[in-house]
């Protein structure tokens, strides 16, 4: 038995659960957007952060990582329980085809689960929708929560995508605008510009599950 999960946000650099295999690749007809509110990770109800979700867009590719959990149903459910608590802002799980680099015609894995958000500002309290780039950048530059600054999440995502060799133009442009607000030189991402990330061991995170949501990035 195998469970496959596609990561396109903080799961790319900080999965937080036990897995057996990680593959870099992409899914088709989706793009990354910062249209989702975050109240309890890097923002608050009074001043929500912006985090990324996926928007269905014909012809787009979204690069990230696919994680595989093998073994019995109990082990897979343990991983999904952790992920459902961590990805609490997302109200839906889609099944997608996943492709490795150089294999664009035949998917490497089918039926890969990915956490997504319904783009409904009325029915989905977490959905903020699009906004002008400058407005989003100001919100990201100033929001903060239990996991740290909203801007750190963006910068870490930008770095993670660069590390896997597939930068996202939308993320790069948004990060550039945030640095303008912070007066950080363009392209200068250093430890002093990124707060220390909360990196809990998977075993410790699982110990928190029965009592409270996990306070890590979505």
Task: Give a written overview of the molecule.
With 218 residues, this protein is α+β, with helices and mostly antiparallel strands. It is built from five helices and seven strands; from the N terminus they run βββαββαββααα. It has a five-stranded antiparallel beta sheet with strand order 1-3-2-4-5. A two-stranded antiparallel ribbon has the order 6-7. Strand 6 and strand 7 (148-149) form a beta hairpin. Helix 3 packs across helix 4. The protein is globular and about 45 Å long. Residues 188-215 have low confidence and may be disordered.
List keywords for this structure.
alpha+beta; five-stranded antiparallel β-sheet; two-stranded antiparallel sheet; 5 helices; 31% strand; globular
Low-pLDDT ranges: 188-215
Q: How many β-strand runs?
A: 7
Helix content: 25-40%
| SS element count, helices | 5
Output the radius of gyration: 17 Å
Helix and strand content put the structural class at: alpha+beta
The average pLDDT is 87
> Biggest sheet: strands, sense, closure?
5 strands, antiparallel
The ordered string of helix (H) and strand (E) elements is EEEHEEHEEHHH
Adjacency order of strands in the biggest sheet: 1-3-2-4-5
Percentage of residues in strands: 25-35%
What's the end-to-end separation, in Å? 26 Å
What general outline do the C-alpha atoms trace?
globular
